[in-house]
Design a protein that fits this description.
By secondary structure, this protein is mostly helical. Helix content is 75%, strand content 0%.
Length: 140
């Protein structure tokens, strides 16, 4: 985030004062944004930092809440399994085709692979949290 902010500030100053913007500055900020977002999702899930809307589920009986929690964890795992798989496939396509950014000619595939890796990490975190929830519910 600091690198993104610094690059944007330097680009604005260089454009305004010297009439010379940083070549590919917007591309680099975009790639850094992918890295920041992708690598923060698993950490945030690990800390239970994502927003959970429990307006309706708080009114359900305990048994229904447990089933609801299980379904939510399962659907999250399915989503991130698909995201892992498709991101990896797309990364392979980009790597084979040699797709690069327009100005700096930075290859796209490492960033897509990082999304696949981070999605796999989120999947594993959801699996661990789901198993923990099942074990805790079984103990009660």
């Amino acid at each position: 985030m600091v690198a993104m902010l610094g690059l944007i500030v330097v680009d604005i100053i260089a454009s305004g004062v010297f009439n010379w913007p940083i070549p590919g500055g917007i591309e680099i900020v975009g790639f850094l944004g992918v890295v920041v977002i992708a690598f923060s999702i698993a950490h945030t899930q690990f800390l239970h930092g994502h927003i959970e809307v429990e307006f309706l589920s708080t009114h359900f009986p305990k048994k229904i809440r447990k089933i609801n929690d299980g379904v939510i964890y399962f659907l999250g795992m399915v989503l991130f399994a698909l995201l892992t798989w498709k991101s990896y496939e797309f990364g392979r396509v980009l790597q084979t085709s040699g797709e690069v950014s327009m100005t700096q000619e930075i290859p796209f595939y490492p960033f897509v692979y990082s999304i696949a890796f981070c999605s796999l990490t989120v999947l594993l975190v959801l699996l661990a949290q789901g198993l923990k929830a099942i074990i805790n519910h079984a103990k009660k």
